[in-house]
Write a structure and sequence with these properties.
Strand order of the largest sheet: 3-9-10-16-13-12-11
CATH architecture of the domain at 40-85 and 154-324: 2-Layer Sandwich
Structural class: alpha+beta
Largest sheet: 7 strands, mixed
Bound molecules: adenosine-5'-triphosphate
Number of helices: 13
Radius of gyration: 26 Å
CATH topology of the domain at 40-85 and 154-324: BirA Bifunctional Protein, domain 2
Helix content: 25-40%
Strand content: 25-35%
């Protein structure tokens, strides 16, 4: 019987393991559901993904600053934010109207489509009740009897709201301004994961942009466009991206409007990032709960107000996975097929690979020198002298290395190397003294290639 060809997802999962991007967590103990570890190439991919986000959201802007808040905050924070009440009850979902209801309070709840009915009475099938402990609980304190329950944060956003005043005052900011944060969030996810698309712990990248209440719509539109464009700037195929506005019934309790940037994954359309108009909900709630004044006072107009918040919130693991899926190609060449990841050069885990053409006559030593020079210039560089040169190229194509540099016999006397470009497979002769400048330029001139799909 003919063997079934693996799906694209299966291929990516196996490439990730084979080449050291991502491993099943606790694998030698039989694995842990929805949990993964990142290997040498995965760590580089994640670092670059986060760096690309940070550059666009913080470094390149005068109106956004960074924050790194604690994972475990005061437990009351999550009561105020609505997470304790919203995330820890037995819940059922209506498959028809997509409403989510407390299983023990169905008689008090109303169908989203037919408010005169209770959930389930409208003909929609209800799922089995599930304990929705989306928040992980932990104990703070030495002895269990005297310790108190705290939570691992399910989103980084609350840490930003808690520091709104601290940051605004210390950084001397006034609306419109933003506070950005990248960090781990934790959710006790029970739905199937699709590899690292949905995991129990993940790196979230969120930015809360504080604006005058009259300007929320303008900024909401601005951030939707800006965030959508970011993915295409990093090479994601625009035909596989869409912006989907939530309808009223889908909106979270705090949101006036939300739109998701979605990608067409091998398993269907899925959310990459959400852009939400969170209104003044969070700041007002925290202000009410603590008695703290979380208003902005405009000294010019003498106006006092609670800013509205526009929040782009993305997942860095999901983004890195998307970069990978989107970059993957089995390219049909004249004689054979090559597997290539067309990563944007800023995203590729290894920037340059350096090869001596053969393992003798001083070429390895010269190649090591070139590799050291590139490392010093902060290029992640891989040195390889094993096997035929064609095979070495292919191994780098498979992990998305944009530039392979070969040192041959002539290089020893003329100090000229061959740079081979991953996407076009074209080659350039470059003087070693000009190599760093050449690579910097080639990186910034990179264009997404038309894949032959
Ligand atoms: P989903 O509908 O997929 O559960 P969400 O709407 O709950 O996501 P948000 O709270 O808006 O997600 O979080 C912002 C981003 O964080 C998401 O767009 C996604 O990229 C990422 N994210 C959320 N949950 C997970 C998870 N369990 N694993 C990996 N990434 C996640």
């Amino acid at each position: 019987m003919a063997k079934k060809a693996p799906s694209l997802m299966e291929t990516i999962v196996s490439l990730c393991k084979r080449r050291g991007f991502i491993f099943q967590a606790s694998e030698i103990y039989g694995g842990m559901g929805n949990t993964y570890d990142y290997g040498p190439l995965g760590v580089e991919l994640m670092r670059r993904t986060k760096e690309a986000w940070w550059n666009s959201m913080v470094t390149e802007r005068a109106d956004v600053v960074g924050l790194d808040s604690a994972i475990i905050q005061h437990p009351k924070v999550w009561e105020t934010s609505g997470h304790v009440a919203g995330f820890s009850d037995p819940m059922v979902d209506c498959k028809k109207c997509k409403g989510r209801f407390r299983a023990d309070k169905l008689e008090d709840a109303r169908c989203l489509e037919r408010p005169s009915k209770q959930p389930g009475q409208c003909g929609g099938e209800l799922t089995e009740p599930r304990e929705f402990n989306l928040m992980f609980k932990t104990q703070v304190g030495a002895a269990e009897a005297t310790s108190s329950t705290a939570y691992l944060r399910p989103e980084t956003a609350q840490g930003i709201f808690l520091n709104f005043k601290n940051v605004m005052d210390s950084a001397r900011l006034k609306p419109p301004f933003g506070i950005a944060q990248i960090g781990k969030s934790f959710r006790n996810e029970i739905t199937p994961g699709n590899f690292v698309f949905r995991t129990r712990e993940f790196e979230q990248a969120e930015m809360e942009f504080f604006v005058h209440p009259d300007e929320d719509v303008k900024w909401y539109e601005y951030w939707k466009a800006k965030r959508f464009a970011w993915y295409t700037e990093y090479g994601v195929n625009p035909d596989k991206l869409r912006m989907r506005e939530h309808d009223q019934s889908e909106l979270a309790h705090y949101a006036k409007a939300t739109a998701d940037v979605e990608y067409e994954y091998p398993f269907g359309w899925g959310e990459l990032e959400g852009v939400a108009n969170r209104t003044d909900f969070d700041l007002k709630r925290h202000s009410e709960a603590t008695g703290e004044n979380l208003l902005y006072f405009d000294p010019q107009t003498k106006e006092k107000y609670t800013p509205y918040v526009i929040e782009p919130a993305g997942g860095m693991n999901r983004t890195a996975l998307t970069f990978m899926i989107d970059a993957y190609e089995e390219e049909q060449l004249e004689k054979d097929t090559r597997v290539v990841l067309h990563f944007h050069p800023e995203i590729a885990p290894i920037t340059a690979a350096v090869f001596p053409l053969v393992k003798k006559d001083g070429m390895p030593e010269k190649a090591q020198e070139v590799a050291a020079q590139l490392r010093k210039a902060r290029f992640t560089t891989f040195y390889d002298e094993k096997g035929a040169i064609g095979r070495r190229y292919r191994r780098q194509d498979e992990v998305g290395t944009p530039f392979c540099i070969t040192i041959d016999g002539d290089s020893l006397s003329d100090d000229v190397v061959t740079v081979r470009h991953r996407d076009s497979m074209e080659q350039d002769k470059v003087k070693i003294s000009e190599l760093v400048t050449f690579l910097i330029e080639a990186k910034s001139n990179w264009k997404r290639p038309e894949k032959k799909e």
